[in-house]
Design goal:
By secondary structure, the protein is α/β, with parallel strands linked by helices. It is 53% helix and 7% strand. The protein has a 5-stranded parallel sheet with strand order 2-3-4-1-5, with helices on both faces.
């Protein structure tokens, strides 16, 4: 796999565009990095910031030696204290939105002079969660961009951003990556077996950072497989046992927002399993993502045909809508169980 310096697997059009912009010194005042989660939007934003901030960069490559690059390199594990001219903004777990106070704080910091006589860069995670007031405050900054100030908004839901912000930003769309590219990356970079790389690449469904997380975080992988097993077990259990299995998925000690986020992730896992069952039903066996539980899926397929699978799929989609409308997560899970 060709190494361009950019820490991206796939999405070469993103690194090519940003490299060209840096070389031609045509840097926009704001960017929107959009697309599904786990495609590398976060690390691409930080690397872009590193290149812009480098005091001795050669075309589109950081020198890795100057004071700015050393700050990025030393603090890789702590993004919040990474660099004196780089600021991060994200939604609190307990909150529904990014507040106007948070945005005003970011704007204030970006308005100060650069510590290293370079760019001032603000990265906003989950930008779609900006409150209306916060978005309006940010818009005023985007309408009057300052020299050497860049704002990068990261979101999987560009349709939820105000059009006034989108129209004033350079839009970069990240797209899912082919499984063979992710497979080759894992084999070459981490020297794992091809069978393990195949499983992780398929599980990630085109999202290389998710494949990497499966590889490096055993607890995360085990939790994913636990959610997979619960869904599979639904087909072997009576309704009372299914209610019991689903009951352990919400946590009363967590806030409602945290529970909603957790259940939404579980639903995405279950939707991928329904998709695989439909693919197996249509005999597109090579396209399934949960290859590691193929045997279980084949067994389930014999218990439910297309009609039942479509009903389950519709129930899961409805559950997502209910959660986003603030319906109690436990009630949503119970509704899924009833429709299994």
């Amino acid at each position: 796999m060709k190494n361009t310096g950019w820490p991206l697997v796939g999405n070469e059009h993103i690194s090519a565009f940003l490299s060209k912009s840096i070389k031609n010194k045509k840097i926009a005042g704001s960017y929107v990095f959009c697309g599904p989660e786990n495609l590398g939007k976060d690390i691409a934003a930080v690397y872009f910031a590193k290149v812009l901030s480098c005091q001795n960069r050669k075309e589109d490559a950081p020198c890795d030696k100057c004071a700015s690059c050393r700050k990025f390199n030393v603090n890789k594990g702590d993004s919040q204290t990474m660099h004196s001219d780089l600021y991060f903004l994200e939604k609190d777990d307990e909150k529904k939105n990014i507040s106007i106070e948070q945005v005003r704080g970011l704007i204030s910091r970006l308005s100060m002079s650069s510590f290293l006589n370079s760019y001032k860069i603000g990265i906003i995670y989950e930008a779609h969660s900006l409150s209306t007031e916060a978005a309006n405050a940010l818009l005023k900054t985007l309408e009057e961009p300052r020299k050497n100030v860049v704002v990068i908004l990261i979101t999987p839901k560009i349709e939820s951003l105000p059009q006034t912000i989108v129209s004033r930003s350079q839009i970069l769309k990240f797209i899912p990556v082919q499984a063979d590219k992710i497979h080759d990356y894992l084999v070459e970079k981490f020297e794992i077996t091809r069978s393990a790389a195949k499983n992780f690449a398929h599980l990630s469904m085109g999202r290389p950072m998710l494949a990497l997380k499966f590889l490096e975080d055993k607890e995360f992988y085990d939790d994913y497989m636990k959610k997979v097993k619960i869904f599979i077990d639904f087909f072997d259990k009576g309704i009372n046992d299914r209610f019991e299995l689903a009951g352990g998925l919400s946590n009363e000690k967590k806030s409602n927002q945290e529970n909603v986020a957790q259940i939404l992730k579980i639903i995405k896992i279950w939707e991928s399993l329904v998709r695989d069952l439909l693919l197996l039903e249509l005999e597109h066996n090579d396209l399934i993502s949960n290859e590691i539980v193929r045997a279980d899926l084949l067994r389930i397929r014999d218990k439910c045909r297309t009609g039942r699978l479509l009903k389950i799929s519709a129930s899961l989609q409805q559950a997502e809508r209910y959660l986003l409308a603030n319906v109690n997560p436990k009630l949503v899970l119970d509704q899924i169980v009833v429709n299994m």
